[in-house]
Design brief:
Low-confidence stretches: 354-386
Helix content: 40-55%
Number of strands: 6
CATH topology of the largest domain: Nucleotidyltransferase, domain 5
CATH superfamily of the largest domain: Ribonuclease H-like superfamily/Ribonuclease H
Number of domains: 3
Distance between the termini: 101 Å
CATH class of the largest domain: Alpha Beta
CATH architecture of the largest domain: 2-Layer Sandwich
Strand order of the largest sheet: 5-4-1-2-3-6
Mean pLDDT: 84
Radius of gyration: 36 Å
Number of helices: 16
Length: 386
């Protein structure tokens, strides 16, 4: 005889069907009453499981659903069908959003349950590579320099560069201009981040683009909401940077607060230049820094293939959009904004921003002139003018 009551055995059992099957087999051999005494249960329970086994076999020994046949609080059929149709309308929205948009009385949990029961609950997330591919196709449609991102990069958090920066008075902030359809980048450097430097950098770039007829009217120059671009957060008038952009009939667009992914194009090159340039190069002084920065920029714009843009360089992509584009349009030297500001202060009569920040480089340099080779591209700067 079983020392434990049948109810206790069932409550602790992990496989109730197996226990009930043993009861049925014993009953067939010994009868109802001996089985009830042996398993410490009632004859009624033995007969119940014997009849279920005869009618439905082993699977019939499982517990039956205790769900009521009728629920007075159940969602009406018409409302359930309407909720199912809403899923096809709001394909990728969740139950909470659909409930709010349609002002439904049904709870979000019930909405999800109805979708699940009707096989429409799957909300497939768009694959990351598909999203990137779609964005690349959209960016291809923009004209050259129609959409541009600008941002700054702090250089004092790069371990390989920091000791050189402090010992040799090298720039502490990088100003980056990046065109998003082809990936062209231009650089500026300074010892501080400021609205004045951003304005000078914008003017320097605008002068160069105007020279090669590359300013697209109503094109967007996008930045974050840093004070170096928008000025004071409480300012009631456009900043000097904004006015400089709008003077060329461009639009200064800012990203939503905290939405740093909107600046992904320029943030990407910030990571690349840190790995390709700052962590590798060693600089003798500030002049040597500007030389090597120019060489790297030439390498990036004219030679470096971009795996996310058909494995082509910015120069190749730009030529596809503008076959008549001269190579010099992508060869703007990086600007030393501190030096440029000193010149503007020393001589206020000087107009324009088309001032070379690298006076040691000149477009009239003979091909035989010796120049240092870059550790990145292994090419002499003079070779770019061929």
């Amino acid at each position: 005889m079983c020392p434990y009551p049948w109810y206790q055995v069932m409550r602790l059992s992990k496989d109730k069907k197996q226990q009930r099957y043993q009861l049925v087999i014993y009953d067939k051999e010994h009868g109802v009453y001996p089985s009830s005494r042996f398993f410490a249960t009632t004859p009624k329970t033995v007969r119940k499981w014997l009849m279920r086994f005869i009618e439905g076999g082993y699977q019939a020994l499982a517990d039956l659903s205790r769900r009521p046949l009728y629920s007075p609080r159940a969602v009406p059929e018409d409302d359930a069908r309407h909720i199912v149709k809403l899923k096809s309308k709001y394909k990728r929205l969740g139950a909470d959003q659909v409930k709010a948009l349609e002002d439904l009385a049904t709870s979000s949990k019930t909405i999800r349950k109805i979708w699940r029961e009707n096989g429409v609950s799957s909300r497939k997330r768009r694959k990351k590579h598909i999203t990137k591919q779609n964005l690349r196709e959209i960016k291809k449609q923009f004209a050259l320099f129609e959409r541009v991102c600008e941002d700054t990069k702090d250089l004092d958090d790069i371990p390989e560069y920091y000791p050189q920066m402090m010992a040799k008075n090298l720039p502490k902030v990088q100003y980056t201009f990046r065109e998003i359809s082809c990936g062209v980048q231009f650089l500026g450097f300074s010892v501080e981040r400021s609205l004045t430097n951003s304005m000078l950098f914008a003017g320097y770039i605008n002068e160069h683009l105007r020279k090669y007829d590359l300013i697209v009217e109503n094109g967007i120059r996008q930045t974050d909401n840093g004070s170096e671009y928008i000025g004071s957060w409480s300012a009631k008038e456009p900043s000097a940077y904004t006015l400089k952009i709008e003077s060329e009939k461009l639009v200064h667009g800012t990203i939503p607060p905290g939405a740093h992914r909107f600046q992904s194009d320029v943030e990407t090159v910030h990571n690349l230049i840190e790995v390709d340039f700052y962590e590798i190069e060693r600089f003798a002084d500030r002049r040597d820094f500007m030389e090597k920065a120019y060489t790297y920029q030439l390498f990036f714009n004219l030679e470096r293939p971009n795996t996310y843009k058909e494995n082509k360089s910015p120069w190749q992509l730009a030529k596809e959009k503008r076959p008549d584009l001269p190579k010099e349009a992508l060869m703007l030297p990086p600007v030393d904004l501190d030096e440029l500001l000193d010149k503007k202060i020393a001589n206020p009569a000087i107009g324009g921003y088309d001032v070379s920040s690298a006076p040691w480089l000149n477009f009239s340099i003979p091909r035989s002139s010796p120049l240092k080779r870059c550790a990145i591209c292994k090419m002499c700067c003079i070779e770019w003018f061929a």
